[in-house]
Amino acid sequence: MKKLQIKLSKLKLDTPVLPASGTFGYGDELIDIIDYQYIGAIITKTLTWKENAGNPPPRIWEFQNGLMNSIGLQNIGVRRFYEEKLEILRNLNKTLIVSIGGKNQDDIFKSIEFLSNKKGIDALELNLSCPNIETNKTIAENPDFTFKMLKEARRLTNKVLIAKLSPNVTDICEVGLAAEQAGADILSAVNTFKGLYYDWNREKMYAGGVSGPMIFPMALRMVFELYRKVSIPIIGLGGINSGQKALEMIFSGASAVGIGTSLVIMPDLASRVCQVILDYLNKTRKNFYSVIGSRNEKKH
Predict the structure, then answer these.
(1) CA–CA separation, 74 vs 51, rounded Å?
(2) Cα–Cα separations (whole angstroms), residue 248 to 153, 192, 193, 281, 295
(3) Is 120 exposed, middle or buried (CB count within 10 Å of its CB: 0-12, 13-18, 19+)?
(4) Is the peptide bond before 143 cis (omega within 30 degrees of 0)?
(5) Catalytic: which of 4, 73, 130, 273?
(6) Average pLDDT over the chain, rounded to whole?
């Protein structure tokens, strides 16, 4: 397992395999179910300044090769997380990444300020898919909003900042470069794709974010393109359901990979992905860093 220990910006990870935000709860629910040695770090579900009940059901719809969700950021809020969860997570001795979101920028900044001096938190992931109250669009759909958000976040905290990008853009590289220039340390790409589901029983359309294996080719392409433009590390995610797909994401330029929907279905997926990566490194006699972007000629 030592071969899989990596450094991602200032973060020390036990492996390059991470649970995507929203699929691993607050980080403590699966302690008795999976072996945490295969998880490079804990990434919490997205927290908001105040507790949030989320959207009313139905809010998850299953497709043949994925699913769509409209959870609505259900969570206990940053203060309850600090009071009820942080000490448990500290005792796990894992790198801890807390995901932050909100309905407006002021609430996001309040959360950053509150968590920025809390011991045991190694990084903050900014979920830039949150709507901007001025435009009713997600922050990561606009390079200017992304830059302003990251610039202020960088001013408020010295912790490692991860910008989670949306795929629902014309050019993800514009947004990624804006995040990097504003002070992001790491990019996470990509979040869910916008989709619709028609419920024949209710005779109603539902909107939400599509995830799962069906989005992998598009996510792979976006990581491939980002790697050619940015200089900071990329966590590649979107549809990874096997060690082979994880390696493909790394070949394209991801320094670490996130697994989400498939992790919910297969709790042991992280260990299986780690084994495939290890087998590949042993077979090719390569170290992990030499594999990053090895099928992608990086151009600046």
Answers:
(1) 8
(2) 32, 19, 20, 14, 9
(3) middle
(4) no
(5) 130
(6) 95
Is residue 130 part of the annotated active site? The answer reads yes
Cβ atoms < 10 Å from Cβ of 118: 15
| 20 touches 43 (CB < 8 A) | yes
C-alpha span between 249 and 290 (Å, rounded): 14
Domains present along the chain, CATH in parentheses? 2-54+73-194+212-291 (3.20.20.70)
- At 240-289, the pLDDT tens digits run 999 999 999 999 999 999 999 999 999 999 999 999 999 999 999 999 99
Helix (H, G, I), strand (E, B) or coil at 300: coil
Tell me which residue has tokens 């590649």: 236
pLDDT digits (tens, 9 = 90+) for 101-123: 998 889 999 999 999 999 999 99
The residue type found at 200 is W
